[in-house]
Amino acid sequence: MPLRGKKLHVLEVGSFEGASTTWILDNLMDHAESTMTVIDTFEGGMEHQAAENAQKYNMSTLESRFRANVAKCEHVNKLRVMKARSDNALLALRQESAHFDFVYVDASHVAIDVLHDAVVCWRMLNVHGVMVFDDFRWKGYMEDCYNPHVAILGFLRCAAPEIETRETESQMWVTKVPNRIPATPNPDPALYYWEKDKNSALE
Ligand SMILES: C[S@@+](CC[C@H](N)C(=O)[O-])C[C@H]1O[C@@H](n2cnc3c(N)ncnc32)[C@H](O)[C@@H]1O
């Protein structure tokens, strides 16, 4: 959906220095009632905290760099910063009954964190809203369970009845559409449980 000029409630999970935050503030916050919420620990993800990277990314000044960058934006007064882990902050937003039109998921890249962020953000995304996952195919770690891909794929399978997807170079864009696949009750009770030897859940 075209976003510019519309009243939008935007959520960014993971802002780092604010490159994407400042772009959104400068380009998507024209409407007087638009708002933007960002969540970040400002401690970096696993990839930033690794000893060899902490210096490279200058982690000790991350939050002050973020705050200096967003302060230059015309619409900074529409920005709410939640300095917290995404799992806690997202649940707090749910408690507030928050809803969003555009969500950018780019915090922890550890699959189980991404899965949590995806599901809770999805619950707060309005129908016709858009959720973007950054680093869809990022493989910073050797093990699948530390990379976002498995989490995003698992989420997409679960949300299949109400999604339209588009993959760009490094991102997965997901639009929430009205549910178009109603659940069909299984007519045969004998099929309620899968035969273990054929369908082990962990295979
Ligand atoms: C890849 S960077 C975000 C980049 C930013 N979206 C951009 O495009 O410029 C990831 C950010 O997520 C934050 N982060 C990592 N794990 C987090 C968690 N569990 N909760 C909140 N923030 C987290 C890090 O501090 C880091 O600033």
From TrEMBL:
InterPro entries: SAM-dependent_MTases_sf (IPR029063)
Taxonomic superkingdom: Eukaryota
One Pfam family from the record: Methyltransf_24
Gene3D superfamilies (alphabetical): Vaccinia Virus protein VP39
UniProt-recorded name of the protein: Methyltransferase domain-containing protein
